[in-house]
Amino acid sequence: MTMMNDFSRSMITQSIRTEQSADQKAKAPLPRVVIAGETNSGKTSLVNFLLGGNLLPTDIVANTRRPTYLRHGQTLSVKLNRSDGASAFIEQSDWRRLNWKNISSVEVHAPSAILEQFEILDLPGFFSQADSENNKLWLRPSDLLIWCSPATQAWKASEQAIWKGINHPRSCAFLAITHRDLLSTKELNHVTERIAQEAPRFFMNWSAIAAPQAVSAQQPNTPRETREMPNSTGIDDFMRKLINLLQSVKGQASATPKAKQKASDAELASLHPLQAFAQLREQVEHELRIAASPTDTARILSSKLSNYNNNVLREWMLSTGRTLSQSKRIESLISTREEELNKYFIDAPNLTPAFTPSQILQQLGGELSEIIISIENKVFAD
User: Fold this and answer.
1) By CB neighbour count within 10 A (0-12 exposed, 13-18 middle, 19+ buried), where does 13 fall?
2) Bigger pLDDT: 77 or 24?
């Protein structure tokens, strides 16, 4: 049992490997595990447990109010990503003197074998349901999302309200009941009985774990009897269920890009055009966070808006019997040509200042809403 943690961690890495060629692996994005929860919910301890010890700079990861990506690196380093697309590595000693105003996210690179197999996204602690709108923009439907809930107040009403706002797919959701060591055996049994009834509605699986004790058990100088207590920390149950869910998520992620796009288009087409545009806007803004240039931005926006025109607007207009003039007026709102979109993102002398994708989408959404509502209310004149 002394090798339980290392063995389980090895099983995780093997569970998400594929038989792709080295070239295919280099091109494929790594799976992502997202750690989320309210403030002081045990997220940092759980991350350290997954990484195999206290690898992370606590004053950085625990105190930031920005999404933090944990990625593999040969040495420990920290990079800040600005909202304008610029980025820079910083020394840990400079952390407390930072101006956070224009920082959009943080990247911590650490020498952990786990991070060679998947990356971790540690979201800021949720204070209220309002945080759901901001934080869910960083999520992809294929992310394995682990929600941390302290055992002393497990899965309380405020968490449930936040979770409903996130609206993450149940098939990729895991509930981690943290700090189980703070409860007596009787209290823990009472909590787990309740969670067993409530969790399946929102999560594919759940487990109770004492992450700090699990981290301590991994240290070389830890007494043998402490390292041999996986049942009291919940390690066995947590790792087994997490591995099973990782394998399931990996299977979902193996679908071809064409099949995924087809499913996404079908989902949007089933919505009212304004609902579909709101969902599309979230997807676009999320993808454009990593757009490297005005050209990339125009390309992504062109592709997404073209899909929206073809799979949502036109289908809606056909199915509801809109007239030709109504259809033309709606379609004329949304330019899908890259060269036309590109000019909005380039600063040049004597030209209109560059727009952000959010500004363009906000303006499009307002104009689209006005016209569609006027058509539905029959105040549109042909």
Assistant:
1) middle
2) 77
